[in-house]
Amino acid sequence: MSLSRIPSTFASYVSLTKPRITVFVVMTAFVGFVAGTNGPLSSLALPLLLHTLLGTALVASGTSAFNQVREVDLDGLMKRTQDRPLPSGRISLRGAALFAGALSVVGLAELFLFTNVLTTALAAFTLVSYVGLYTPMKTRSHASTVIGAVPGALPPLGGYTAATGALGLPGLALFAILFVWQLPHFFAIGWRHRADYARAGVRILPVIDPSGRRTARQTLLWTAVLLPISILPSLVGTAGFAYAFGAFVLTLLFLRSSLRFARERTDGRARSLFLASIGWLPAILILLVLDRV
Questions:
Q1: Where are the alpha helices (DSSP H) in the chain?
Q2: How far apart are CA 232 and CA 242, in angstroms?
Q3: Domain final residue, candidates 167, 197, 217
Q4: What domain count does the chain have?
Q5: Domain check: are 145 and 9 in the same one?
Q6: What DSSP string runs through 187-211?
Q7: 139 and 255, same domain (yes or no)
Q8: Could you tell me if 273 and 236 lie in one domain?
Q9: Residue 147 and residue 10 share a domain
Q10: For the residues 253-270, what does the mean pLDDT come to?
Q11: What is the pLDDT of residues 131-190, one digit of tens each?
Q12: What is the mean pLDDT of the chain?
């Protein structure tokens, strides 16, 4: 490899890790760690927190890389993904697989050595269920969306168990919030890119539901479920009234976008719903940390 290609190759390997998703995963793990810390935030065990976030980031990066290895053929069929490093041929499949394996092993070792067995097991289950179950299921059943929401909701629970060494209601409440949020979020993405997904044979609900009625109903249902789910942290003692009130108002705004999409199943409404979902989750997490402070 010539020296001139090193920066491009490095960037390609970095893109395999889906950095934006990794940042999101680390953020939710941080909130889970905060939820599992008793007393003021000044009492956070910083070395343990750093090891937790580093291990989580490495496993999340490895998971994303393995996902692209498994989906290289599908990515090559979709316009939105055909320029990724593997379908475009910028890096080899073998190199990507070795890279994904190294990230995953180092991340799991980091969690095992510096956190606890439970947190490591949750991270390992996230990796295996996402790559081994959710990824191949996408071309077989629209139920894959619900299945994939499980590993997607585990990082905050892992952050909580790293801080406490055990499962608990505050961690499970965060898991529930992440699980439910992913469904309207992904339905918005799926509707906007349904033609692309159909071209690749991905059997998500927006693909097998041309009218969009079922997609709209499911979107509206799961967003409505967020109303009670979003205030769970206050009910289990992780947050107070300020969080509960703010979360309820934010979820009402999210629900309004979902209702508009249900009434007008257009790409524009789906995009607005997607943006609402992207704004809702960080706002909820920030609100939770601020209330905790």
A1: 6-16, 19-35, 46-70, 72-77, 93-114, 117-129, 135-137, 144-152, 154-164, 169-192, 194-199, 205-208, 213-229, 232-235, 241-263, 267-292
A2: 13
A3: 167
A4: 2
A5: yes
A6: HHHHHHTHHHHHHTT---HHHH-TT
A7: no
A8: yes
A9: yes
A10: 95
A11: 999 999 999 999 999 999 999 999 999 999 999 999 999 999 999 999 999 999 999 999
A12: 93
3 has pLDDT over 70 = no
What does the alpha-carbon distance between residue 147 and residue 274 come to, in Å, rounded to a whole number? Answer: 20
For residues 162 and 173, state if they share a domain. Answer: no
Return the structure tokens found at 15.
């893109």
Residues 86 and 222 in one domain: no
Question: Which residue is associated with the tokens 């927006």?
Answer: 206
Domain termination site, one of 110, 145, 167: 167
Domain match, 111 and 220 both: no
| Dihedral sign computed on CA atoms, order 84, 87, 92, 93 | positive
Provide the CATH number for the domain around residue 132: 1.10.357.140
Write the DSSP assignment of 75-109 as a string of letters: HHH-TTTTTSTTTTTSS-HHHHHHHHHHHHHHHHH
CATH label of the domain that carries residue 205: 1.20.120
Catalogue the long-range contacts made by 147-153 (C-beta closer than 8 Å, 24 or more residues apart). 148/182, 148/186, 149/178, 149/179, 149/180, 149/182, 149/183, 149/186, 150/179, 151/63, 151/125, 151/126, 151/127, 152/178, 152/179, 152/182, 153/177, 153/178, 153/179, 153/182
Residue 6, pLDDT above cutoff 80: no
For residue range 50-71, what is the model confidence (pLDDT) as tens digits? 999 999 999 999 999 999 999 9
Q: Same domain, yes or no, for 284 and 147?
A: no
pLDDT value at position 39?
Answer: 76
Q: How far apart are CA 88 and CA 82, in angstroms?
A: 6
